[in-house]
Amino acid sequence: MSQTAFERYAPFIQEYIYRKQWTDLREVQVEACEAILDTDDHVIIASGTASGKTEAAFFPILTSLYQNHSDTIGVMYIGPLKALINDQFERLSELLEESYIPVWPWHGDISQAMKKRALKEAQGVLQITPESLEALLMLRPSDATRLFSDLRFIIIDEIHALMGTDRGLQVLCLLSRLEKVANCKPRRIGLSATLNDYEPAMQFLAAGSNRKVQAVGIKYHKRTISLCAESFVLSNDPEEAEKVMQEYNDFLYENCHSKKCLIFTNSRNAAEKTIADMKEIALKKNERDVFYVHHGSVSAALRHEVESTLRDSNGPTIAAATLTLELGIDIGDLDCTIQIGAPYSCASFVQRLGRSGRRSGKSQMMFLNVYKPSDRNPFEQMPWELLRAIAIIQLYLEERWVEPFELKAKPFSLLAHQTLSTLMTFGALSPSELARKVLMLPAFHSTVSQEEYRKLLRHMLANDYLQRIEDGNIIVGLKGERIANHYSFYAVFQDEQTYHVHSQDGEIGTLDNCPIVGEVFILAGRTWKVLDVDEEHKIIYVNSVKNNRIPRWNGSRGRIHTKIIQRIGQILREDIRYSYLRPKASQVIDDARFIAREVGILQKSIIPYTERSFYLCPWVGSKTLQTIKNLMTCSLKDSLRIYSVFEGHHYLQITSDLSVAEFTDKLSKLQINFHDPDLVLPKNQVPRIDKYDKMVPDELLRVAFLYNELDVKAAVEVLKGL
């Protein structure tokens, strides 16, 4: 036992460690103890999944609070998920049992009685989501002052899930607003399992504050990894394809049905389909149904039931999940994880890999891929998902690389949101005072100009989101009030149009599209028939039946980083046999390498197709390829005499009157203004992408699309180099 850290902990923490029969402290816990107790810095704690990060943060922080009581809430824990807060509440309640330090959960599912008690006592630890903190600051600023005037620490869990998103920028704004409203200067502690480069995370954590930041943790958590990948190739013959799918399902069943296992899919549809197939096999074999579904459209109650079953069951338990079980909710020790297809990012892979072997230190992950090659062109014959899985695995094994995050360059949607929220907090403000309060928030002070903010305010005033009163001050307008007074306002991520599905036992989940009465579909791993639809309240009433139609939910493909695409190119060039590939998967890669070399897609970026058509495969990520497509269909269309641009898997098919030589010659001399939205958008097109874009003028939305969604500089470099 490391006495230096252990002896410094408060007595109730020492007793907790004895009760848990820990024999030593982990290195990250020793480092964090020194960083938190011996400095006044913000701290990033970044180490592997199940390496004790939560305890590394809370043990010294609670010791500090125990030794020097705060007059108000002393510690605020910000969690990205209600389920994560509920999970941490249970763990903290046990830890704090004999400390006399209270802990309060605070989110949309917590009762008003509990919140009133928290407001009355105003002591200890508050666990809250970003959305509930937004509501608290906006609607109860005086309570916020009373609750947080002696706030010492803010812990931000799963910080990597926030960085680079509107929600992350919202959190930075909230921290800055909280400090001003409550007149406090708390230290910030960020927790993450998927950081490779600490520097951007340190800058994110410190944004808007004057404190230094230090990072602690074992950069590469010592963990044994067992990987396996298999591929199943579908033929054009329907009978043969059906046999292959049966073989695939049997293989999946044999590798999961006797284990405690998570099956990750990239869509809700795939999660439901996977579990429906597994249940069908279990029924045929007369074996126990131990299969569950966990995704964002399954009701909170049923998701909690799945989490509890995974955590508490001693026998086999299998759940198919999307991103919802990627973050650190405690679901106990798993035997393995299985990925259907491939994750879109290395960060996602690291999170999913770390879900198994939490206690044993041995993570097991299997990749399963089904693909149907197309004869249309060589690119459509490539097994892109298997290639992506290998690329992600190799980048992790070789470099421990994960994607760097990018702060949104022009967050105008969030700017409109924070403008309304600020006015709801303070009431009437002069234009200059409003600009000072909003533009000094960390999300905007170096990205949004005063002129851009003037344009936004003029538009919001003209459209009654804001209103100017007789003395010249600005208040929230009628349309703004309707938006700000709805509970959905606190969240800055897009709401889905959802219908709530109810049986006689309660809510089952949600659908994006409304089925008709009598229709049958699968949700939460069970089959339901529509009895009635309440259109006004968006409720679908159902009862349980036997059938197997999977509903479709809206969803978008994840963005893939250029480094992953370039690593795929390297896989196709090299002759290495990866030890984790099973025989069929190895054969698929051999075939892909043969096609790539025969066609020459590795030697040149442009491959002729017909006399006036060619393929462009520049081996770049989703963002850069999308930018190239927008340039080709907009500002470069006439000069390059382009008729059509079709986007496939990581390539473009272009039809032009120019020869390839003429085409590339013109591109090599390209001179354009990187800051002109007309480059990438037709003059009448206004993309509305973010939640509050309806409050933003068209001119600014075009600028936002240029800077937030595309990368013109990278695209032009690629095109000039062709």
From TrEMBL:
<keyword id="KW-0067">ATP-binding</keyword>
<dbReference type="InterPro" id="IPR001650">
    <property type="entry name" value="Helicase_C-like"/>
</dbReference>
<keyword id="KW-0378">Hydrolase</keyword>
<feature type="domain" description="Helicase C-terminal">
    <location>
        <begin position="248"/>
        <end position="403"/>
    </location>
</feature>
<dbReference type="InterPro" id="IPR011545">
    <property type="entry name" value="DEAD/DEAH_box_helicase_dom"/>
</dbReference>
<dbReference type="InterPro" id="IPR014001">
    <property type="entry name" value="Helicase_ATP-bd"/>
</dbReference>
<dbReference type="InterPro" id="IPR027417">
    <property type="entry name" value="P-loop_NTPase"/>
</dbReference>
<dbReference type="GO" id="GO:0004386">
    <property type="term" value="F:helicase activity"/>
</dbReference>
<dbReference type="GO" id="GO:0140097">
    <property type="term" value="F:catalytic activity, acting on DNA"/>
</dbReference>
<dbReference type="Pfam" id="PF00270">
    <property type="entry name" value="DEAD"/>
</dbReference>
<keyword id="KW-0547">Nucleotide-binding</keyword>
<dbReference type="GO" id="GO:0016887">
    <property type="term" value="F:ATP hydrolysis activity"/>
</dbReference>
<dbReference type="InterPro" id="IPR052511">
    <property type="entry name" value="ATP-dep_Helicase"/>
</dbReference>
<feature type="domain" description="Helicase ATP-binding">
    <location>
        <begin position="34"/>
        <end position="213"/>
    </location>
</feature>
<dbReference type="GO" id="GO:0005524">
    <property type="term" value="F:ATP binding"/>
</dbReference>
<protein>
    <submittedName>
        <fullName>ATP-dependent helicase</fullName>
    </submittedName>
</protein>
<keyword id="KW-0347">Helicase</keyword>
<dbReference type="GO" id="GO:0003677">
    <property type="term" value="F:DNA binding"/>
</dbReference>
<dbReference type="Pfam" id="PF00271">
    <property type="entry name" value="Helicase_C"/>
</dbReference>
